[in-house]
């Protein structure tokens, strides 16, 4: 059972947490990725929004993402304490009380949704609220501890920000942000399963049914290759659909091939240090891969530096 539901008398105890500990609860690395992908959703959306409103909306989306990360850390404090990668987080390390994290996360959740609704529109606010609910409840409280498909289904939470960004601009969402959603959704399994191959012992101690612990490393490696093979061509779609230019086409093709090559190395190298090195290489490059795709789209659409693909007359 999660530490969030433990009976404790911490209401009379003051935490030793500093401002940086509360900031750490927001998962700033994840939050920064949400900012980039949501901003890309705004930049590629058909239409425009006042820069001040766009900035305010982006801050609200970032705070909402941080709130969901905070609620995730609150609920997962018990299993975080069992894993070397997460044992030093503020709650399992004892610097922040679970009750404080819960209050902090709920306050930021409600505040970010209300602000986004006031400065943007109801659809954007609803989608932000649904994203927080999906990550904090559907993924953290249910999928993560129940199924090895936790990362696959739960990956939708990380893929919603471009749709929220487009909704801020247009009050709706269409194919632009749906394609961006698909890229992030397909990227999530190879990214996290590469890490899970290395940290499978941590997940086993915590009782989390990650793919390598349930289906085995060999099956996980095959699925990493499969998802990479599907993801790479999907990532080219923005160029083919006209909201990515020649630069995006070049970057998406070359980095997509690199992702496939690295995933094949993970599949081939199954023992010892070479296997660990291959998994870490894929994990590290996958972060750069997603950042490059969205950064190029931002440059092309946000700064108007797009060189469009030549039209073929049939």
From TrEMBL:
It holds the Pfam family UbiA. Its EC number is 2.5.1.141. It is a multi-pass membrane protein. Keywords: Cell membrane, Heme biosynthesis, Membrane, Transferase, Transmembrane, Transmembrane helix. It comes from the Bacteria. One of its GO terms (biological process) is heme O biosynthetic process. InterPro entries: Protohaem_IX_farnesylTrfase, UbiA_prenyltransferase, UbiA_prenylTrfase_CS, UbiA_sf. One of its GO terms (cellular component) is plasma membrane. Pathway: Porphyrin-containing compound metabolism; heme O biosynthesis; heme O from protoheme: step 1/1. The keyword Transmembrane applies. GO terms for molecular function: protoheme IX farnesyltransferase activity. It catalyses: heme b + (2E,6E)-farnesyl diphosphate + H2O = Fe(II)-heme o + diphosphate. CDD domains: PT_UbiA_Cox10. It is found in: Cell membrane. The chain crosses the membrane at residues 30-47, 53-75, 96-116, 122-143, 150-169, 175-198, 224-241, 247-267, 279-299. Converts heme B (protoheme IX) to heme O by substitution of the vinyl group on carbon 2 of heme B porphyrin ring with a hydroxyethyl farnesyl side group. Carbon 2 of the heme B porphyrin ring is defined according to the Fischer nomenclature. Belongs to the UbiA prenyltransferase family. Protoheme IX farnesyltransferase subfamily. NCBIfam families: cyoE_ctaB (TIGR01473), PRK04375.1-2 (NF003349). This is Protoheme IX farnesyltransferase. The gene is ctaB.
């Amino acid at each position: 059972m999660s530490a969030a539901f433990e009976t404790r008398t911490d209401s009379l105890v003051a935490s030793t947490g500093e401002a940086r500990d509360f900031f750490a609860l927001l998962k700033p690395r994840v939050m920064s990725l949400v900012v980039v992908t949501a901003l890309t959703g705004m930049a590629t959306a058909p239409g425009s929004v006042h820069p001040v409103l766009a900035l305010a909306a982006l801050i609200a989306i970032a705070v909402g993402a941080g709130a969901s990360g905070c609620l995730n850390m609150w609920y997962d404090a018990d299993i975080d304490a069992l894993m070397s990668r997460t044992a030093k987080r503020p709650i399992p390390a004892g610097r922040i009380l679970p009750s404080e994290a819960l209050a902090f996360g709920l306050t930021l959740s409600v505040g970010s949704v209300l602000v986004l609704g006031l400065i943007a529109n109801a659809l954007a606010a609803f989608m932000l609220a649904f994203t927080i609910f999906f990550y904090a409840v559907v993924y953290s409280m249910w999928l993560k501890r129940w199924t090895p498909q936790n990362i696959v289904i739960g990956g939708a939470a990380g893929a919603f920000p471009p749709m929220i960004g487009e909704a801020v601009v247009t009050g709706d969402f269409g194919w632009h942000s749906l394609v961006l959603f698909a890229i992030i959704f397909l990227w999530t399994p190879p990214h996290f399963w590469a890490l899970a191959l290395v940290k499978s012992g941590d997940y086993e101690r915590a009782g989390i049914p990650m793919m390598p612990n349930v289906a085995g490393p060999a099956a996980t490696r095959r699925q990493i290759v499969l998802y990479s093979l599907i993801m790479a061509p999907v990532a080219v779609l923005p160029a083919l659909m006209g909201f990515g230019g020649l630069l995006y086409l070049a970057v998406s093709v070359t980095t997509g091939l690199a992702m496939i090559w690295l995933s094949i190395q993970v599949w081939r190298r199954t023992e010892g240090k070479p296997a660990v090195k291959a998994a870490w290489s894929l994990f590290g490059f996958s972060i750069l891969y997603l950042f490059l795709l969205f950064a190029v789209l931002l440059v092309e659409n946000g700064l108007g530096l797009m060189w469009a693909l030549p039209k073929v007359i049939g």
